[in-house]
Structure formats: C-alpha cells, structure tokens
Amino acid sequence: MSGMIRKEICMILQNRKFLVICFAIYILYTFMFDMDMSFYLPFMAVMLSISGFSYDDYNGWQTYASALPKGKTNIVKAKYITALGLMIAASILGLVLALALIKIKGAGSLEESVSALAGSIVALSLMLAILFPILFKYGSEKGRMALYILAIGIAGITLLLTKVIKVEISPATMAFLESAAFPILLIVIVAVALGASYFISRKIYLSREF
Predict the structure, then answer these.
(1) d(Cα 91, Cα 51) in Å, to the nearest integer?
(2) How many Cβ atoms sit within 10 Å of the Cβ of residue 27?
(3) How many helices (H) and strands (E) does the chain have?
(4) Distance between CA 153 and CA 20 in Å, rounded?
(5) Helix, strand, coil distribution of the chain in percent, nearest 5
(6) Which of 48, 85, 205, 209 is least surrounded by Cβ atoms within 10 Å, i.e. has the fewest?
(7) 125-156: string of b/e by CB count within 10 Å (b at 16+)?
(8) Helices 40-59 and 16-27, interaxial angle, to 10°?
(9) Buried (b) or exposed (e) across 89-122, using 16+ Cβ within 10 A?
(10) Are the C-beta atoms of residues 141 and 58 closer than 8 Å to each other?
C-alpha cells in the first residue's frame, strides 16, 4: 500500500506550478494584506487529493491496480490516507506561517489561527467523508456532477428551512459550544464519519468491475 501512497503523492507533485502559484497567493494575502488565510492550505491540499481521481480515470489506473493483490482495498486506503495526511501537513504549515505572521507583523492571534484551522479540518473531513464514496461509485466526472447536485440540494433545503423555521440559540447551547466537551464531540463525529465513509467506499469499490 505504501507504493500506492507514493503514487498519489507523485501525481500531486506533478502540479508543481499550481502548488507554487497557490503558495504565492497564500503568502501574498497573509503577509501583505494581514489576512488570516489559515484555511487556504488545507483546502488546496484536499482539492489536489481529489484531483487524483481524474488522473486515475484518464490513465486507466484502476484496471491495472485492481489486478494487484488487495489492489482495490489498497487503492481506497491510499486515497483516504493521502488526503488526510496532506490536509494535516498543510494545516501544520499554515499554523507555522500564522505564527511567523504574528511574530513579524504582530497581526492576528494564535487562538484565531488555531480555531480557523480546526474548523477547516472538521469541515474538510466531513466533505471528504461525503465526497469519496460518490467518487468511488461514479468516477471523477459523474461523481463531480453528483456532488454538485447534492450540494445544490442541501443548500436549497437549508435556505428553505431558514426561512420557514426561526432558530434561536439558547444560553445552555452557547455554554456547551464554548465548553471543552464540544471539540471532543466534533472529533468523535469526524472519526465516525470518516470510518463509515471508508467502509462504504471500500464496499462500493470492491463491487466495481473494470
């Protein structure tokens, strides 16, 4: 499986020019405009991981890899490990650069950067949990279309509910959101979502024929 992880990383590194441009944009907005762009690097890491599905479809990688011992299972594992690993690495890099900004220019705060990164990791992890089974089921092109339909549907339902139902946050709810139990709950939700997503993706992919 380590070979498949290396393959995923090599595919991502083929986009060196794109990576340099993204990093330059991050540096520009962070240090010249004093903007907190902590979410940007992990977001781009996830997008690059997702782009690997398109490369696989274009090069017929699944047909070859599926013939290897435990090929399909290792493909699914490699996708999840690579995406999560890159997201965490990008978050650490973003935190280091945020600290540099605080030290050099005195802009922002460590607490804000950590909160932004934590929120990004939770949101991106849940996005991966939803997106990966769709991509494994339908492939990159159909999976992207299914994702757009799903996103529009969720946005439409959310907008409709916000107009029909007025939600008021009670003091007890605010107290819970500010307590130490809330981050623990988020970690559990993310872990369960990713675990369920992995097993669903594996089941879907093992049933596919190439």
Answers:
(1) 19
(2) 13
(3) 8, 0
(4) 35
(5) 85, 0, 15
(6) 209
(7) bbbbbebbbbbbbebbeebbebbeeeeeeeee
(8) 170
(9) ebbeebbebbeebeeeeeebeeeebeebbeebbb
(10) no
CA 60 centroid distance within chain: 24
Residues in the chain: 210
Q: How far apart are CA 77 and CA 68, in angstroms?
A: 14
**Measured CA distances, 127 to 43, 95, 183 (Å):** 11, 21, 18
Report if pTM > 0.70.
yes
What residues does each domain of the chain span? 2-207
Tens-digit pLDDT profile for the chain (210 aa)?
Answer: 677 787 777 777 777 777 778 777 777 776 676 666 667 788 888 888 887 787 777 777 777 777 777 778 888 888 999 999 988 988 888 888 777 777 776 656 667 777 778 888 888 898 889 889 988 888 777 766 766 676 677 667 766 666 666 656 667 666 766 677 778 888 899 999 999 999 999 998 888 776
Q: Extract the tokens encoding 124.
A: 């991106």
In this structure, which amino acid lies at residue 203? K
Q: What are phi and psi of 170, to 5 degrees?
A: -75, 160
